[in-house]
Write a structure and sequence with these properties.
The chain is an alpha/beta fold and about 300 residues long. The protein is about 35% helix and about 25% strand.
Length: about 300
């Protein structure tokens, strides 16, 4: 039986401008533009589908031809997608300028349709969600939805992707209902309510708020897995970055998969780091090179 994971979160169209010269404020830069499916929840779902999982995605995509195309692409990838109506809302979009080394220079995210992902709207898809081995949430969701989901499906692992510093704070009221929080260090500090401090101190502050397991990432510097008495520092998987957007989503997907199949902590973070490395090397937010075999090989130190 395949691993079954349900995802509730955002889906959008990504519009990336890859600058081929230094980006100057108030001026344009030569380069090229790439449009592809994106959104944290959708990216997690695609990564899991590429690992061979049975994936159910509940999202809101607004209206229009872009929304229809986004849903069609999800289905083409093997994702069982269920959409909450968002009448009058445009298809969500993420517009980003990518500079040298694959790092974002500036971005704007229009995720207004995700505000329609309220408990009453999601409940109609309960039959699909009930059958999942694990549930992934992203912080594009309203705070009430995250708290409700933790209450409804607390009998299985619930993994939250913090999304951004601004949106991470929405999860403050549901930390005790989560199995795992995946956040970068700035997101984790915002959620813990601490301005600075090392990764261990941030994890301890999150535990004081009821969290069970924290996985805090620092990009190329690796990160920390903290659970109970375990404090495991891990390294990033070597990569040649093309686009950093989506690496965290791939990492979250790796954590979800590894949690369901029971990978021990060191193998879990190595697997997730390999997922992130594949994403970093792709101009899309999800790498088309991801397969379970490829990620397992890379997590064992065998570069593709």
């Amino acid at each position: 039986m395949p691993v079954t994971v349900a995802v509730i979160g955002g889906a959008n169209t990504d519009v990336f401008g890859f600058a081929e010269a230094p980006v100057a404020p108030g001026d344009s830069s030569p380069g090229f533009v790439r449009i592809s499916p994106g959104g944290v929840g959708r990216n997690v779902a695609e990564n899991l589908a590429r690992l061979g999982c049975d994936v159910r995605l509940v999202t809101a995509v607004g209206e229009g031809v872009d929304a229809d195309a986004l849903v069609a692409e999800c289905r083409h990838l093997g994702i069982d997608v269920r959409t909450v109506p968002a009448p009058g809302m445009p298809c969500p979009r993420y517009v980003c300028v990518i500079g040298a080394g694959g790092a974002p220079v500036a971005a704007v995210s229009d995720m207004r349709a995700a505000d329609r992902l309220v408990p009453e709207s999601i409940a109609q898809f309960r039959s699909a969600l009930d059958g999942a081995d694990a549930l992934v949430l992203d912080a594009n969701l309203p705070a009430e939805t995250m708290a409700w989901a933790c209450n409804e499906w607390g009998d299985r692992p619930i993994i939250l992707d913090a999304v951004s510093v601004a949106k991470a704070k929405r999860a403050a009221g549901c930390l005790s209902g989560l199995h795992t929080l995946r956040a970068n260090v700035d997101e984790a500090r915002a959620l813990a309510g601490v301005a600075d401090g090392g990764l261990e101190a941030v994890a301890d502050a999150l535990f004081e708020r009821g969290l069970r397991r924290a996985i805090i990432t620092q990009g190329a510097a690796g990160g920390l897995l903290a659970e109970g008495l375990v404090r495991l520092r891990f390294e990033a998987s070597p990569a040649q970055p093309a686009n950093a957007t989506g690496a965290g989503d791939a990492f979250t997907a790796g954590i979800a998969y590894g949690t369901v199949v029971g990978l021990e902590p060191a193998r879990l973070v190595a697997f997730a780091a390999a997922m992130a490395a594949f994403a970093l090397e792709s101009e899309r937010t999800v790498s088309e090179q991801i397969t379970l075999e490829a990620v397992m090989r890379r997590s064992e130190g065998v570069h593709p």
